[in-house]
Every structure is written in structure tokens, then in C-alpha cells.
Design brief:
Blueprint (H helix, E strand, L loop, with lengths): L27 E6 L14 H8 L20 E6 L7 H12 L5 E5 L5 H12 L2 E6 L19 H7 L3 E11 L5 H10 L2 E4 H5 L3 H12 L4 E6 L21 H9 L6 E7 L10 H15 L3
Parallel strand pairs: 1-2, 1-3, 3-8, 4-5, 4-7, 5-6, 7-8
Helix pairs in contact: 1-9, 2-3, 3-4, 7-8, 8-9
The structure holds manganese (II) ion.
Length: 297
């Protein structure tokens, strides 16, 4: 006599959380963005989405340990990957923007951070300027990257210039890379709040969470999670690692407490599996998406 049961975690369907729906009209959609044309140092984030999906299989055998919420009870689909245009970042961005249009609530698996710009363009056409909870080792507000204006150090320079982002509702968590004073001053002068990794290490968790809430308020808010916000010991698989970063428990603890925010979308970016060790970077990325989904219940 045969017995029916769920597949083993490692053998489930090869989508995020083993999702079987690929409907673009689902209330929440996962999509991969296999892009690395915007990287300025080590490339390889084009393989991020596949690695995050594989790592997410660790999260299919139970509900959230604190809330009991199972994100698979959401109307949630994995619609596959948005196709880049090989060798052409501007055309890739146009294609990403077009693919993201009309999706009610998108969670994007990256991919280098330049992809957030076309995702914000698609989103803000509906929502108006957004607030940002932005985990990152870098401010990503450089006006150019070695002469290139569309690379992964610039999405929020353009986002602010194009009024996609309300800089007074933009908070960066984990910044710590070397940076020119001009770029940092410009960023703060726009009204962006910058909490360095050290600021967070030296603060109480509740104070950090309260600061995030004060900055983003009740308006539409997007989570952009650059995996390099984490310390390289927790997330080595990324192109521009910076020491002294957040530990995965810190980022997760902050995220878990951000209930009741008017969330309108998320991405997790900069996972480059070729530099990963034991898949811990992809696993951290999958966990951050899981936590975000559990905030939507
Ligand atoms: Mn970034």
C-alpha cells in the first residue's frame, strides 16, 4: 500500500519554496532577475536567483517559528526569471521594467543591485514615490561607477533624481564601505538616513527598529536587501564584500520586528554563488525573503 506525503525538502519542485503556481495575477509573485551587467568588481550574480531558490528548500517544512505563519498560505506564485539582454544593461533594465509592470506585489531575487532601478520605475508608476528600507554595505547613491551611470552603485542616485524614492523616507542599514565625502554628503543632504553597521552594532535592537519606523512612516515602503549588508563571514558569496557587517541574526531580528509597515515590494540582491561557501549566502537571502513574506500575513 502506498502512502502520500510531501516530497523531501531537497527534492521539492525547483521554484522558490517549491511553489507550484506561476500565475502573474497572484497577490504576491516571486521572480528572478539573473543580471550581473552592473557589477563593478566580481561578477556572477546572474546565478543568484537559481541559488536562492535551491536554498529556499530548507524553508518548506514548517511555519515561522515565532508567529506560526506559513507563507505558502499566501496567494503566492513563482513566475520564473525576467530575461536580461546579454551585454546591454540599458536594454536589460527596460525589459525588467516591462516584465515587472502590472504585478500586484513583486518579490525579486537578484541579480545585481542595478535591477532595483527598473523595478522601482515599474512600481512607482502605481504607488508614487516610495520609502525604502535599504540594507546595504554601500549607499548605492554614486552618480557614476567608473564612468558608467547605470551600474550597481547608482540605483538610488537615479531613484532619488527621478523622484521614485522619497529620500526623507529612505533609511540605509549597514553602510560601511569607503566612500567619497561628496557622495555621502549628497546622500545625507537629500534627507536619506544612514545607519552604519557600527551604529547598529552599538545600538539596542529596539532603537534601530524604532528609527526605521520613524523614517518610513505609513507611506508605501519597499524593502531592498543587499546581501553584502551582512558580514562576509555570514555572506561571502557576493561581489563587493566589506568587513564589519551585520550578522544574519541582526538583520533578521530587525526585519522580523517591522510589522505593520505599508509594504509594497521587496528584492534581495547581489548573491554571487561562485564565491559562496556551503551555500550560506544563498540561504541567508532565502531566509530574508521568508521573513518578508511572513510580514504579509
Ligand atoms: Mn547595493
Amino acid at each position: 500500500m502506498s502512502e502520500t506525503h510531501d516530497p523531501a525538502t531537497y527534492a521539492t519542485y525547483p521554484t522558490f519554496l517549491g511553489l507550484r503556481s506561476a500565475s502573474r495575477s497572484a497577490a504576491f509573485t516571486i521572480a528572478g532577475v539573473p543580471l550581473d551587467l552592473g557589477t563593478t568588481n566580481r561578477s556572477g550574480t546572474r546565478f543568484g536567483p537559481a541559488a536562492i531558490r535551491v536554498a529556499s528548500r530548507m524553508l518548506v517544512d514548517g511555519a515561522h517559528p515565532d508567529t506560526g505563519f506559513d507563507p505558502r498560505t499566501l496567494d503566492l506564485a513563482d513566475i520564473g526569471d525576467f530575461q536580461p539582454v546579454i551585454g546591454d544593461i540599458a536594454a536589460s533594465h527596460r525589459q525588467i521594467e516591462a516584465a515587472a509592470q502590472g504585478l500586484p506585489h513583486l518579490i525579486a531575487l537578484g541579480g545585481d543591485h542595478s535591477m532595483t532601478l527598473p523595478l522601482m520605475r515599474a512600481l512607482c508608476a502605481r504607488t508614487g514615490p516610495i520609502g525604502l528600507v535599504h540594507f546595504d554595505a554601500h549607499v548605492d547613491t554614486w552618480s557614476d561607477n567608473f564612468g558608467q551611470v547605470l551600474a550597481h552603485g547608482s540605483p538610488f542616485y537615479h531613484g532619488i533624481k527621478e523622484r521614485l524614492v522619497d529620500p526623507r523616507r529612505h533609511i540605509i542599514l549597514g553602510a560601511r564601505s569607503p566612500i567619497g565625502t561628496e557622495t555621502l554628503s549628497w546622500t545625507k543632504d537629500q534627507g536619506v538616513t544612514v545607519l552604519s553597521a557600527e551604529d547598529i552594532h552599538l545600538s539596542a535592537l529596539d532603537a534601530v527598529v524604532a528609527r526605521v519606523r520613524r523614517v518610513v512612516g505609513q507611506g508605501p515602503t519597499y524593502l531592498t536587501f543587499d546581501i553584502d549588508s551582512l558580514d562576509p563571514s555570514a555572506a561571502p558569496g557576493t561581489g563587493t564584500p566589506e568587513i564589519g557587517g551585520l550578522f544574519s541574526w541582526q538583520a533578521r531580528a530587525i526585519l522580523r520586528r517591522l510589522t505593520g509597515i505599508n509594504w509594497v515590494g521587496m528584492d534581495v540582491v547581489e548573491v554571487a554563488p561562485a564565491y559562496d561557501v556551503s551555500e550560506i549566502t544563498a540561504l541567508a537571502a532565502a531566509h530574508m525573503v521568508f521573513e518578508y513574506l511572513c510580514l504579509q500575513g
